Amino acid sequence: MCTHCGTCAGLSQGTVTMRETPWGPQPAPTPGTQPQLPEAAWLACPGRGLHYPELTRAMAGRLPDNWLIGCYRQLWIGYSNVPDIRRNGASGGVITQTLVYLLEQGLIDGAIVVRQGQPRPWQAEAVIARTVDEICAASQSVYAPVPVNTILAQVADFQGSLAYVGLPDQVASLRRLQQLGHPAANKITWVLGPYVGTSTYTAAIESYLRSNGVQSLEEIARLRYREGEWPGYLQITTHSGRVLRAEKFYYNYLIPFYITRSSLLSVDFTNELTDISVGDAWHPRFEAQRAGFSVVVARSQQAEAVLADMQHQGLVDLQPVELSEALAMHGHMLDFKKRGAFIRMAWLKAAGHAAPDYGYHPAHIPWSRHLVEIVISSIFAVCGTYTVRRLVELVPIGILGPAFNTLRKRWKDASKPIKRKGLRDIAFVIDPPADRMNPPQATPL
């Protein structure tokens, strides 16, 4: 049930480390030590599930009017007006631009970001960026698990206030720590994050390499997941100087083969507990321009004020967008999270397995949507087998990529009537807080 967030390691005073495994980074005892985990490591663990209604009330003072997007104050379609920041971002560069603004205005002293290429070219790690150049060096997305919250050990010694960029599970864990009054977590005064649909294990990159005749991750000199003009392409440069490149929608063929378990069990697509969340603006009129446009969600009063000032200064371009249009851009993935994930968790529980508890669940999911989920989960199950993974490596990307993209579009068109039916009007039932469960072998914070 680990989501690879790294919170336990970050709170362990060095007695727990995140060890790389075929199933992503997993916590393990630091050699020669006895793990010392405070109670907060259990209470803030997103793997067991965190009570989203409770966290939302703590952050926004209310529950969402629309559970698909969470609480928000303003919605825009936007991008950075600084050409290099926009070009180097995953979409419109809004997160990078906001971090630069916050630092230059003296509103923060540093930013927790993920830097690709550290400690090795195919890996990424969380760092505290203290300069504009360091912030910009961490632009773009990373599509493999990174245990960002291990950085909490460094935050404890940091002097000043911080911004933080994280994925939904990492953000939820941070918000729970803030709710608990954790001193390191409370140094973080700004929380930003991307929309997050799916991620893949590092084995996906290994598979892509083998498909191109490269046998080891050690041969990678540089890796970028969203290189070039939006929507970008996967680009890998080897030490021999060879460049491997695949368009975003083509290398997405790796998803059903190497999707992470946490992707399947997460119910938060729009990063609902941030101050600002950002996602690609998937719409034909934006996609045709290939320049990078984002849905920008301001969830707090301070975020709304900062984004307005950034626009006044000409740093960003923000155009208001209706909620219905913003949701339509991501209807497929919203259904995957807000209905599909709950179905998958129900199946796990029915089979006697553990599943996260997020403190709420859909009041009703049509049986037609359950049938669609049988197809989706069956595809993941078959594609996740060793034999099928290896067979697909025999198909050239020039054939596999376009074929996958065509099948993806046809599936979305065929399943759209069922997956969109009733989605915008879905009602949720709030469950009692689950923190009355006793943490195992816990020690005081």
Considering the chains and any ligands shown, give keywords for the structure.
445 residues, single chain, alpha+beta, 15 strands, eight-stranded mixed β-sheet, disordered C terminus, three-stranded antiparallel β-sheet, 38% helix, Aspartate Aminotransferase, domain 2, globular
Could you describe the 3D structure shown?
Strand 4 and strand 5 form a beta hairpin. The chain has 19 helices and 15 strands. It starts with 6 loop residues before the first helix and ends in a 15-residue tail after the last strand. The protein is of the alpha+beta class and 445 residues long. The chain has a domain of 259 residues: 3-Layer(aba) Sandwich (Aspartate Aminotransferase, domain 2), CATH 3.40.640. The strands form four sheets. The chain has an eight-stranded mixed beta sheet. A three-stranded antiparallel beta sheet has the order 8-9-10. Helix 3 crosses helix 8, helix 16 packs across helix 17 and helix 16 packs across helix 19.
Low-confidence residue ranges? 436-445
Q: What average pLDDT do the residues reach?
A: 93
How far apart, in Å, are the first and last alpha carbons? 23 Å
**Percentage of residues in helical conformation:** 25-40%
Tell me, what's the shape? globular
The CATH top-level class label of the domain at 7-199 and 263-328: Alpha Beta
> What portion of the residues fall into strands of 2 or more residues?
15-25%
Count of beta strands: 15
Largest sheet: 8 strands, mixed
Strand order within the widest sheet?
A: 5-4-6-7-11-12-3-13
Radius of gyration: 21 Å
Number of helices: 19
CATH arch. level architecture of the domain at 7-199 and 263-328: 3-Layer(aba) Sandwich
